[in-house]
Predict the 3D structure of the following.
Amino acid sequence: MPMAVADDTAPCRFFRVGSPWVMPKIRTSHSSAIALDEQSIIDFAQSFDPQPYHLDRNAADASIFGGLCASGWQVGALASRLTGEALMSAGIPYITTTQVNQLRWLRPTFVDDQLIAHIVFDEPTPGSPVPDCDSLDVSVTLKDSNDQAIAEMTCRVAVATDATI
């Protein structure tokens, strides 16, 4: 049975109607890298987490973190995005994250850090809060370009039962 094929012509990757898929034998994958620049850190912090070490380089340099760092919530949002990308690159018809069981921040994420999600997943289990989907448990380690773990997340995602969504 052929694997589902992502449609790369759309701004978001959606799976084509009627494309059957099979679970890959290798249950690990990783995302591409994404970098956090200074302005994106400040913009996110201004809207969602206005702490001095996320907003002002001088205040951040004098803080316990020793430099301007991203909000943990920004890192969590990026972990979610990169998890979806890693699943789709592995041929999994990822629809959405339905549950986050655990999210741990292990170290700060600084300006220009490159983040990559390394994921491990199990067999899908029947049923999901999303219609026509099954659930897939995923363990995520978000790492920087020095291969240091930044954050860990365990979550459950919805995957299309027959890639027709």
